[in-house]
Design goal:
disordered C terminus, 3 domains, membrane, about 375 residues, nucleotide-binding, alpha/beta, four-stranded antiparallel beta sheet, cell membrane, globular, single chain
């Protein structure tokens, strides 16, 4: 059974002028020890989805569907059960470490808090655990006495990761963990996340707008646009051989990790993401799509199989699948025709051989 299953999850914000559909019918799963990347532009719904996983959304948000964490529906949990799950079974690295840390409390106190709240350690043991966690994320133990303003952006992000690891959760959600960090520090933080996930067997959901970063860290990718998943599959295939035109555009918009030449060739995507309150008819991406067809404004395409373990919500994928099925049918018909022809030829040959044998027998009798 999967560690995490999302079944038709939707999130709608209620505001004075109406309802805003931020997430629309997302279904995904994550196995233990695996890493899933969720990509998309600002406003695609990826961070809202991340917050919904642990019910961290504001009160004006209405969440539908099911979010199963180890078989237990997060949306149906009592407040006490949910409090026990947060940090202990699933934790989160919030976007922007400068806003995720209390500016008037020392770093060590904040890392120890989840341990004390869940009664996993007494104060002395918690202090030792804090020192171990700081060492794991590459910070000296004496930093536990520092305040957030005394740390650099990269160091604060490492502290956030240490907090997420404090209770040894099975799942970590990292919401844009490299936001506002310079390139060198980004690389260090990403390397740290990869190493910790691999060493400790933690499942990871990582949110980012940069497809190349996710492809480097995660096993699978889900690309979101206008609140929906438009492509899902193995990270390398989605990044290098995207089937949805939005995934291709997103991949081309950023340099590739480890490829210096790609820095010279990023390509922008024209247009703007749609207003969630006034989504285009049919496929939401069609106003910006370079390969849109006449039917796209009227056809709301669902996710279609796009290869082994892959899906994509595009009319071209559906057409390719139909064409492939037609080709397979034609091949089967051709094979049947060839078999029938071979059988007929064999029968004719047998009849001819029988006739020759009969003539020979009559001549001998004469």
């Amino acid at each position: 059974m999967s560690l995490l299953e999302l079944d038709d999850v939707s999130v709608t914000y209620r505001i004075a002028s109406g309802e805003v559909p931020a997430v629309r019918g997302v279904s995904l799963s994550l196995d233990s020890g695996m890493a899933l990347g969720v990509a998309g532009e600002s406003g695609s719904g990826k961070s809202t989805l991340a917050m919904a996983l642990l019910r961290l959304l504001p009160r004006d948000a209405r969440v539908g569907g099911r979010i199963l964490l180890d078989g237990d529906d997060v949306l149906a949990m009592t407040w006490g059960r949910l409090r026990a799950v947060r940090w202990a079974e699933a934790s989160i690295v919030f976007q922007g470490a400068q806003h995720g840390l209390n500016p008037v409390r020392r770093i060590g106190e904040q890392i120890a808090e989840p341990l004390l709240v869940h009664d996993l350690a007494k104060p002395d043991a918690a202090r030792k655990r804090v020192a171990e966690l700081l060492e794991q994320v590459g910070l000296p133990a004496w930093r536990s006495r520092s305040y957030p303003h005394e740390l650099s952006g990269g160091q604060r992000q490492r502290v956030m990761i240490a907090m997420a690891l404090a209770c040894s959760p099975r799942l970590i959600i990292a919401d844009e963990p490299t936001t506002a960090l310079d390139v060198m520090v980004q690389a260090q933080v990403l390397t740290l996340i990869k190493e910790l996930v691999a060493e400790q067997g933690i499942s990871l959901i990582m949110i980012s707008h940069d497809l190349s970063v996710l492809a480097d860290v995660c096993d699978r990718l889900a690309v979101m646009y206008a609140g929906r998943v438009v492509e899902h599959g193995p990270s390398g295939e989605v990044f290098h051989e995207a089937r949805h035109p939005y995934s291709r555009a997103l991949a081309a918009a950023f340099p590739t990790v480890g490829d210096p030449l790609s820095r010279m060739a990023p390509k922008g995507l024209g247009g703007d993401p749609p207003d969630p309150m006034h989504l285009p008819s049919g496929c939401s991406f069609h106003p910006r799509c370079p390969v849109a067809l006449d039917e796209c404004p009227s056809l709301d395409v669902e996710l279609w199989p796009a290869g082994p373990g892959r899906t994509a919500a595009c009319v071209h994928v559906r057409s390719d699948r139909a064409l492939g099925a037609a080709d397979a049918a034609d091949s089967a018909d051709a094979a049947d025709s060839a078999d029938a022809a071979d059988a007929a030829d064999s029968a004719d040959a047998a009849d001819s051989a029988g006739a020759v044998g009969l003539v020979g027998a009559e001549e001998e009798a004469s």
